[in-house]
Write a structure and sequence with these properties.
mainly alpha, 2 strands, globular, 2 domains
């Protein structure tokens, strides 16, 4: 699997590193221009987050294109590895790229917060237990993995159909699958199927006014178990289609 990941990285390293370099240049331009023209911190923050949001789409696109190429490449299918590792390799590539982007964004947020000279105590991190933040982080990671696996399944479904319009069928399969699984989860476990936690509000006036409102939070283990089972079934179906239906 590590060899597959190495091949995927070599194939996409130029695109990803180039995109990150462009991202840094744009963020530096925003900071320098904002300082020279004396923009409000809220404007600079909003522009920076807009750039990060746009950039976050790239790792998903790269991972999906890599997966689509791998399941159709003849030389890739000749490698003595199971098809499931093609899924895992593309998934790790997406997670690693997005993690690097999140670390960079967190450092930038720290810079803006420090520039506003606002005490860190105003965040009220201590109002919630450590397990809450751990659970929230794991929940976000899991939802991303769940999303990527369903996208990979839709891509595989589209490539297993040789008729015209297969791409649109794959898109339809993705949205229908998301709707059906969401409906089943809500039917079985109710509204508690989603993570419920405190809401965060960010507003800008003369300085950053950051408040965290307290609220009820919970982690629905039943809904999580349902997602794990469905993900395993979707992964199995993806591997089956790669081995039996996708033409190279």
């Amino acid at each position: 699997m590590m060899k597959l990941l190495k091949y995927d990285w070599k194939r996409n390293s130029t695109t990803l590193l180039g995109a990150f370099a462009i991202l840094l240049i744009i963020q530096m331009a925003i900071t320098v221009t904002g300082s020279i023209r004396e923009w409000k911190l809220g404007i600079m923050f909003g522009l920076s987050m807009l750039v990060y949001g746009s950039m976050s789409v790239l790792p998903l696109v790269v991972a999906c294109r890599t997966f689509d190429f791998n399941i159709q490449a003849y030389h890739r299918r000749l490698l003595p590895v199971r098809s499931v590792w093609n899924v895992v390799s593309s998934l790790i590539l997406a997670c690693a790229s997005l993690l690097a982007l999140c670390v960079l964004m967190a450092l930038h947020l720290w810079y803006y917060w420090d520039s506003a000279s606002i005490p860190w105590e105003t965040l009220h991190f201590s109002d919630f237990p450590v397990l809450y933040y751990i659970g929230l982080a794991l929940h976000m990671v899991w939802k991303f993995i769940y999303l990527m696996i369903t996208i990979f399944f839709a891509i595989t479904m589209a490539r297993s159909i040789t008729k015209k319009g297969s791409v649109w069928i794959g898109i339809l399969v993705f949205f229908v699958l998301q709707y059906i699984l969401g409906w089943l989860s809500n039917l079985l476990f109710g509204e508690g199927a989603a993570w419920i936690g405190p809401m965060t509000t960010i507003s800008f006036e003369n300085e950053v006014n950051f408040t965290v409102s307290g609220g009820q939070y919970t982690f629905a283990w039943g809904a999580f178990a349902f997602d794990v089972i469905m993900t395993a079934l979707i992964l199995y179906a993806t591997v089956y289609l790669i081995d039996r239906k996708v033409e190279v």
